[in-house]
Amino acid sequence: MATRTFTYDFSNEASGFRKKSSFPSGLFINGSSLINPTTAKSLGHITVASERDIDIAVEAAQKAFNTTWGLHTSGQQRGKLLIRLAELIEENIDELAALESLDNGKAVAIAKSGDVQSAADVLRYYGGWADKVQGKTIEVDEATLAYTRHEPLGVVGQITPCSGNGNTVVFKPSEWTPLTALRVASLIKEAGFPPGVVNIVPGLGNVAGSAISNHMGIEKVAFTGSTPVGRAIMKAAASSNLKRVTLELGGKSPTLILDDCNLDNAARWAVFGVLFNHGQTCCAGTRIYVQDTIYDKFLEKFVAVMKAVKVGDPFHPDTFQGPQVSKTQFDRIMNHIEIGKKEGATCLLGGQQHGTEGYFIQPTIFTDVKPDMTIVKEEIFGPVGVVAKFSNDEELIALANDSYYGLASAVFSESLPRALKLANALKAGTVWVNTYNTIRTNVPFGGYKQSGQGRELGEYALQNYTEVKAVHVNLSGPPPF
Ligand code: NAD
To answer: Where does the Aldehyde dehydrogenase domain start and stop, copy by copy (predicted)?
Structure first.
């Protein structure tokens, strides 16, 4: 098994990170070419794990769980390591943000303040929780002591780096964006985690991903990705060892623009909701419902803000929208745009490739849409929003909830009672009022309906990572016969 090194010279990029990045890119089995979405050219080769590699990673994780981690390391010590890793991520934030922009295409400023800083924040938050996960004593009767323990599950297969409860991890990043995960692998080692606690296995979904979800030695899979793959993972869990599954899946989230909103703010947030992360956001606000009395005024402002967004090189400091992550995604989005036109919607803005190089797509708005159109129903996962009218709140609730997804939503109104009434009626795991995309480490995030199962973040996520054991102790002697 040969070891590869990934090297990239950032000195010509405007990212603020001016050095070379070089780190082991893991085990090399069947090299897969990694593409730079800004230029559509290869960045070099990366490792992809085979089924056998997943077995090796699971064995290492099981060994660590049974010997050094799990119940063998105190919560306090596990917490210290997570917090140390958070510090190391912050110390290397410029490099990690530059790497994230390189393979994902997202604007480097957003990668830094959003993704990389959030990763550090999440590690620090759960580092704080690590010694505060505890069971209860339960009053039964004088002759019985009953209590619960919240025990770690064992090996968790996941794509988010969190092991605060004593579980060990086999983590497969996306084949399109493995770089930061591989760089963080060196930081995990530097932080002092025992070997085998976190194992990073970049690979293809139908090989490495499938091996994880079918593995008999993995107790839980935390999956973030599309709804069809989430379905496949549940099936694999059901037909292997009934492992626990939490799913963070796709969405088609509604943004509700009411006639009493602050129009300027609503237009800006609505654009942010569609274009954040070049539209490659699970919770993107891509269905925009506008009250008929303010429709024309809102649309004018919304289009003006969209037109002003800088699309281009993710390393340029003014860029908000970079390229789509891959040719596959680019083609999928362009295909949805064509379907939208064919089904009779009006393409009011954009609808074409931006420039001629790389996977850039113009910010795109469709109007004159009907509820059963493909572009209203399906997640596009690109910089494409649809705008429709409503006349009263009852009609609005029906339109907003007319989706098999239920990840997020937003309400724009200056009337708090009206906004909160709508917030209660929306079938979505998150409702933003007069904002969009504000995700906090200590607030749960997850989906209703086919947008997922379970919650990540905050105290709510902890229950996904422990088993509750009930212990009954008889204090009074023989059985009653
Ligand atoms: P995807 O479902 O194609 O891939 C996600 C991951 O699953 C990748 O690591 C992939 O290799 C793996 N995979 C693919 N086939 C598999 C299989 N058969 N078995 C096991 N693993 C497999 O999704 P994507 O295109 O990388 O990401 C976009 C999707 O992710 C969108 O639908 C988006 O909404 C969703 N997403 C959801 C959240 C959330 O928190 N709800 C966050 C980000 C993205």
So the answer is: 34-471
Pairing of the two strands 168-171 and 410-412: unpaired
Write out pLDDT tens, residues 64-106: 999 999 889 999 999 999 999 999 999 999 999 999 999 899 9
pTM: 0.93
Sign of CA dihedral 409, 414, 415, 417: positive
Q: How many CA atoms lie within 13 A of 252 on its CB side?
A: 23
Contact criterion met (CB below 8 Å) for 223 and 171: no
47 with 28: CB under 8 angstroms? Answer: yes
DSSP-derived secondary structure letter, 18: -
What is the Å distance from ligand 1's center to 178 Cα?
13
Which residue among 200, 206, 226 is best mutated to probe the pocket of ligand 1, counting the most ligand atoms within 8 A of its Cβ? 226
β-bridge partners, 149: 469
Q: Amino acid letter at 5?
A: T
pLDDT by residue (tens digit) across 93-139? 999 999 999 989 999 999 999 999 999 999 999 999 999 999 999 99
- Where are any strands of DSSP class E within 400-439? 405-406, 410-412, 432-433
